[in-house]
């Protein structure tokens, strides 16, 4: 497959992409919890969402997780450290911030964060998980597979932005579509590899995926 050419984004592509965007959203309503786990990324709006939840009194601790990824490999600090710095500037007390800065994928985010909390005797019964909008479902499926303690309720949330509002100069619409297509493939394939729990994919969503792949949105597909 040719994975680097520029893809035409017309009304049909937008409609197909919106179906996948909507599927990735879980529409959880967070409840007061014992910890807010913010997964690191290149999108600082994820950090801002976690900070806002903390400031609203939704949990007493903010845990930032993540080392560096493909889009953050040139950052001076790890994703977790960068997010923690944003939180401190926003007024979050340092003793309410926890940092897990070794994980390089979502499974490690979950396992390493659990280990950090366990070492402090802080295993939560309720937890808010913050991720990018188009990665909510995969984060949820990964969490339920990789979190060792099964007596936990998790609420997944993300920056409160629509599909139309989400892209920026740094995160283009085309890139978002490529990533969503790649994530949907992972939701289908990763349970067989032991990375996630199964998630039902409606036919209309998978058919949208097939059409977008046919149209060349293949940059982040796994082999």
- CATH topology of the largest domain, by name, is Rossmann fold
Distance between the termini: 11 Å
Number of helical runs? 7
Outline? globular
Task: Briefly note the structural class of the backbone.
Answer: alpha/beta
Stretches with pLDDT under 50, minimum 5 residues:
none
Q: Percent range for helical residues?
A: 40-55%
Radius of gyration: 17 Å
Largest sheet: 5 strands, parallel
**CATH homologous superfamily of the largest domain, by name?**
HUPs
How many structural domains does the protein architecture include? Answer: 2
Strand fraction: 5-15%
Order of secondary-structure elements:
HEHEHEHEHEHH
Would you count the extended β strands for me?
A: 5
CATH architectural arrangement of the largest domain:
3-Layer(aba) Sandwich
What strand order characterises the main sheet? Answer: 3-2-1-4-5
Mean pLDDT: 92
CATH class category label of the largest domain: Alpha Beta
Characterization of the model:
With 223 residues, the protein is of the alpha/beta class. The protein has two domains: 11-24 and 163-214, no CATH class; 35-157, 3-Layer(aba) Sandwich (Rossmann fold). It has helices at 11-24, 44-55, 79-89, 106-119, 136-146, 173-189, 203-214, and strands at residues 35-39, 62-65, 97-100, 126-130, 153-157. It has a five-stranded parallel beta sheet, with helices on both faces. Helix 1 (11-24) packs across helix 7 (203-214), helix 2 crosses helix 3 (79-89) and helix 4 (106-119) packs across helix 5.
């Amino acid at each position: 497959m040719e994975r680097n050419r520029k893809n035409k984004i017309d009304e049909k592509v937008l409609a197909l992409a919106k179906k996948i965007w909507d599927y990735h959203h879980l529409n959880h309503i967070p409840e007061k919890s014992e910890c807010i786990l913010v997964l690191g990324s290149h999108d600082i709006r994820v950090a801002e969402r976690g900070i806002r939840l903390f400031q609203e009194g939704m949990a007493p601790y903010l845990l930032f997780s993540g080392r560096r990824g493909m889009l953050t490999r040139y950052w001076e600090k790890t994703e977790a450290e960068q997010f923690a710095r944003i939180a401190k500037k926003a007024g979050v007390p340092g003793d309410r911030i926890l940092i897990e800065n070794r994980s390089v994928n979502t499974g490690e985010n979950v396992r390493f964060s659990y280990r950090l909390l366990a070492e402090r005797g802080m295993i939560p019964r309720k937890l808010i998980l913050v991720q990018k909008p188009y990665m909510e479902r995969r984060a949820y499926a990964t969490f339920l597979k990789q979190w060792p303690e099964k007596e936990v309720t998790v609420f997944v949330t993300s920056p409160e932005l629509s599909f139309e509002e989400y892209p920026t100069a740094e995160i283009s619409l085309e890139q978002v579509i490529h990533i969503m297509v790649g994530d949907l493939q992972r939701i289908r394939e990763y349970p067989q590899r032991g990375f996630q729990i199964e998630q039902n994919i409606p036919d209309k969503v998978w058919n949208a995926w097939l059409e977008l792949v046919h149209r060349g949105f293949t940059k982040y597909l796994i082999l």
